[in-house]
Prior knowledge:
TIGR02099 family protein; YhdP_central; 69-stranded mixed β-sheet; mainly beta; 69 strands
Amino acid sequence: xxxxxxxxxxxxxxxxxxxxxxxxxxxxxxxxxxxxxxxxxxxxxxxxxxxxxxxxxxxxxxxxxxxxxxxxxxxxxxxxxxxxxxxxxxxxxxxxxxxxxxxxxxxxxxxxxxxxxxxxxxxxxxxxxxxxxxxxxxxxxxxxxxxxxxxxxxxxxxxxxxxxxxxxxxxxxxxxxxxxxxxxxxxxxxxxxxxxxxxxxxxxxxxxxxxxxxxxxxxxxxxxxxxxxxxxxxxxxxxxxxxxxxxxxxxxxxxxxxxxxxxxxxxxxxxxxxxxxxxxxxxxxxxxxxxxxxxxxxxxxxxxxxxxxxxxxxxxxxxxxxxxxxxxxxxxxxxxxxxxxxxxxxxxxxxxxxxxxxxxxxxxxxxxxxxxxxxxxxxxxxxxxxxxxxxxxxxxxxxxxxxxxxxxxxxxxxxxxxxxxxxxxxxxxxxxxxxxxxxxxxxxxxxxxxxxxxxxxxxxxxxxxxxxxxxxxxxxxxxxxxxxxxxxxxxxxxxxxxxxxxxxxxxxxxxxxxxxxxxxxxxxxxxxxxxxxxxxxxxxxxxxxxxxxxxxxxxxxxxxxxxxxxxxxxxxxxxxxxxxxxxxxxxxxxxxxxxxxxxxxxxxxxxxxxxxxxxxxxxxxxxxxxxxxxxxxxxxxxxxxxxxxxxxxxxxxxxxxxxxxxxxxxxxxxxxxxxxxxxxxxxxxxxxxxxxxxxxxxxxxxxxxxxxxxxxxxxxxxxxxxxxxxxxxxxxxxxxxxxxxxxxxxxxxxxxxxxxxxxxxxxxxxxxxxxxxxxxxxxxxxxxxxxxxxxxxxxxxxxxxxxxxxxxxxxxxxxxxxxxxxxxxxxxxxxxxxxxxxxxxxxxxxxxxxxxxxxxxxxxxxxxxxxxxxxxxxxxxxxxxxxxxxxxxxxxxxxxxxxxxxxxxxxxxxxxxxxxxxxxxxxxxxxxxxxxxxxxxxxxxxxxxxxxxxxxxxxxxxxxxxxxxxxxxxxxxxxxxxxxxxxxxxxxxxxxxxxxxxxxxxxxxxxxxxxxxxxxxxxxxxxxxxxxxxxxxxxxxxxxxxxxxxxxxxxxxxxxxxxxxxxxxxxxxxxxxxxxxxxxxxxxxxxxxxxxxxxxxxxxxxxxxxxxxxxxxxxxxxxxxxxxxxxxxxxxxxxxxxxxxxxxxxxxxxxxxxxxxxxxxxxxxxxxxxxxxxxxxxxxxxxxxxxxxxxxxxxxxxxxxxxxxxxxxxxxxxxxxxxxxxxxxxxxxxxxxxxxxxxxxxxxxxxxxxxxxxx
Length: 1255
């Protein structure tokens, strides 16, 4: 820039002012010289100057010159710099300084364009700067009393950075100079998106000609808001700053060459990258005060209330710290002070900080965490050697990751004070931990509480550590320790440590075995000691650690002793654990556990020892010796849960026992080869009860000894009692096979009592038996045999047996294929059975009796019976009745469902009669039975439901009943219940009588059996009825019925009374009641009413019995009656026009009500009296009144015309006197089978009314 031109211009102004002073009278006319002034100014500056107006005034005693609308034109004639107004007040100091000095220089609304070209040179208002700086202008500016710039606008264009123009508006500048003192203030408004108003104030003491270190002063900058990243086009930051905004205030001090800089920050949404290869650090906020101070040989960095929050949640709480560094020649001294350091935050921020590789590696390796408070540290370096150091701090939550031999820690709290001469560490922590990888393979130790006081001193001879007091409590142990340790740099050091352990968990012992204990032994401790607690523990560790574990007592001592309580030892994989142990334990170079009490599966142990003689030999051995007494059942479980179970092929699986015994056991277990464990033992049974297999009874009074090794099982003489008789068992094994032989005698009564099988309870006696069991590969082949000699059976048919006869029984169990069991049962040549079990479930089975087919069904259980004759009546005395179990319930045996029962026999004897060619198939369906019945007498299907009182429904295509069957059923015991039913019989026969189609429906309701519908229908007639049978202690039957005969003659013929009546219609209806079941009439209580009505029929000649009674009124010999001859009264029969009467029943006696009247064309018969239905007797009066009609008289006239005419006239006039003349009465008594008839004289009763009611 041509600053000389500006100086000339200023000098010219001064000259003008002097002229004005000298020529005071000319001031009012100064505007007349505007052109001359423009020309002089243009020449002085080198650019054309335009002045809009010039005025001169007096300001007090100082002349003042005012220029308005000033423009400096560039080479193109365009304004490069404009001034709205310039006001210059001349100071009288100019006279003795011989250069212009202004009391005030003021610029109003200047607009200044500043440009940096691509060559780096600046131009202001179109004037390019020169390469040489001219200090004269700067000196002149600092000589002016006051300089003011108001409302300026500066346009900054940087072509070198290719940045967009930057416009600063509303720029205000104040500069006050007074000798060496210079005070200034500057404010400007940048674009709103970049920042708020910028405020800068300061004061400097010094001269431009003085050295820099002689300057002093203060600087203050305030910026309420700025988009830091937005300034990047015009400003180069020392770090990458892609994003950020906020406010700052800055104070600077300079004095005697020492500088201080203090900054208050309030930034947010900040992204900063502190190195090219470092990840960006995203901050939500950054606040606090940063300060720095620099002197010639020292510097200080400090922060107050510095806090930050990253976008991923890392928070630095307000922190104060100060770092001092001073260097003098080769000596360096440093100090650090901090009120709080969060190591975890610093470690997490380390990835973003410009640290050297070693520091970054250490932070990553040790991962420090926790808080350091009241930190004071100092150090001194002489060259590169550390000559002194000191550290004092409090800490909480302190943690560091273990690395190699360096211990780790977590959650520590306390304080430390150390120097190069020694120090002291105090720990008072709650939940915390230590990690000692150099000592233990499982290095992590947790504490609920940890207190320690440790001091140490350092010298050229080594480090001496005094463990004054250590108290610890944690999940694994509680105790105290004290001792000392000396490290000289040669070997691992010398230790003298003693500890008392108040409590320790047994399952943590393995964790405290040092590296010197081999991995196999330590692994056994981990798996073997799995519970319990220790108390009264002692630890002694004394000697040079180079000689650990001190097998030679002269070199040192290592011993841990404790008393165990409720310990659990899992001494070998697959063997039952020893629990509840009370023992003395000791650990040195081996382990010894001597148990005085404990249990194995509930059995008490005594004198048990578990020993590892030496932890550090090539083939460590675990030796277990001991004895146990307790329940035999627990011993059986012990075998089944041990490897012995495989050896004996799980021979004892499923066995149960009552009683006690004794086990002696020895185990030799190579820890590196546990599969080669050797075992020796035996068990003594003492009056035990032993249950071998589900479904069999306990064997009582079991005594004997069972010998076991890891390869065999043997027993030569185990005795006991089972099924009411003695037995003996032998056991042996060879080649992976176990053989069991059992022999004994069984009481059939005990067998029946245990199993509760039907039929067996009818047998008596005892019989020998034998069982052979071969067990191999967890499969047992079983054969049980007996000839049943000594057993007596009263059962019918093929199961009848005497005590001296033999009936071989054989039961075989085998496994023909993997996952399949087969059970074959043979009872002589009487019955056979075969049942299969697949994959643990019964799948199919068959039982065949007699000649029945024994082939297996596809699924389920089928029972087949095929015999020449089945006497069901005989079996009824042995089979369970309804009271013992409702029939029709589907049978199951451990999942094998009964699916079908098949009966086939030529003759089935039931209810006193034989049924021919019987085939019955019964199939259970849930709680129901589906029954298919086919015999010579019946063909149909039934469904039986056994719930509640039962229900039967079905349809017979044909059903043939006989009187013998009915008689047999009547003679059976009286039933006390009937099921509900819905039956249809398409073709019902009774003996040889075709009765027609039957429909029957009944149900049980509140203790009553309701007959809702009874309908028996054929082409000749129909019987219908309904009723109720009330069950209980006082049974009662109520029955209503109606019989309709469409052709009485045919209906009677169908019922077996051939030619008794010809034609005729009839109706018999009534209501009967009696005490007792529906199936059996109780005549003494029988009561009721009957009504009979018939018409248009004729009685035929009848056989004796009831027919004879009817024959009394069968008056078919009317010509003989005309001759008063009644000898043929019972010979032929009687035609009738109607029969009508009402009857009552009381106590089993049926009586007529107003007589039973039969009206016929030839006779009228009236029957009165009663009949005993139970005794089948009668006492009847029968009145026979012949009908002597005109036809009869006419017939008589053929013989004697006079007599006939007279009779006709008399009969007509006298109202049938002939009828009364020929009427007779008969007294009928006796039985129905042989009635007795006697004449009782003439019927003198009044004649009945005629049809019209006339007498």
